[in-house]
Amino acid sequence: MELVKLTHENIDQEHICCAISGNKDIQVMSKKNWLKDRLDEGLVFLKGNVRGKCFIEYIPAEYAWAPIEAQGYMYISRPERMRRMPLRPLRHFPFSMTGSL
User: Fold this and answer.
1) Does the CA dihedral 72-78-84-88 come out positive or negative?
2) Strands, E, within 1-101: which ranges?
3) pLDDT (tens digit, 9 = 90+) per residue, 41-56?
4) Can you tell me the distance from the alpha carbon of 2 to that of 71, in angstroms, rounded to the nearest whole number?
5) pTM listed for this prediction
6) What is the C-alpha separation between 69 and 84, in angstroms, rounded?
7) What is the 8-class DSSP label of residue 86?
């Protein structure tokens, strides 16, 4: 599976929501504008180039959208629907925590 890293250069062309297909939809435009602001804060948004939802998002903890104190750490976002699932240890990361693939 190929991982695509969202950047300011490619975010307008990339599909970010499998429930809404049109880039001109107000919800998609709002989400992309929000993501652009988060990219400036250090967000790394990787998406699997596959059908369906396959995202990895992480950001420096001081910019996390959850109330945490973890300076020097990364906040890894888990979608709401996955919060009921237990976290399992990762055997390996296909990228470094600095955001490089």
Assistant:
1) negative
2) 3-5, 44-48, 55-60, 74-77
3) 999 998 887 776 778 8
4) 31
5) 0.67
6) 23
7) P
> Which residues have CB under 8 Å from 76's CB, separation 6+?
56, 57, 58
Structure tokens at 43: 């967000």
| Among 20, 57, 52, residue whose Cα is nearest residue 39 | 57
Which backbone phi and psi does 45 adopt, to 5 degrees? Answer: -120, 110
Per DSSP, 53 falls in state: -
Residue type, 60: P
How far apart are the C-alpha atoms of 83 and 73, rounded to whole Å? 20
The rounded distance, in Å, linking the Cα atoms of 11 and 14 is 5
Say which DSSP state 1 is in: -
- Tokens at 45, concatenated: 């948004």
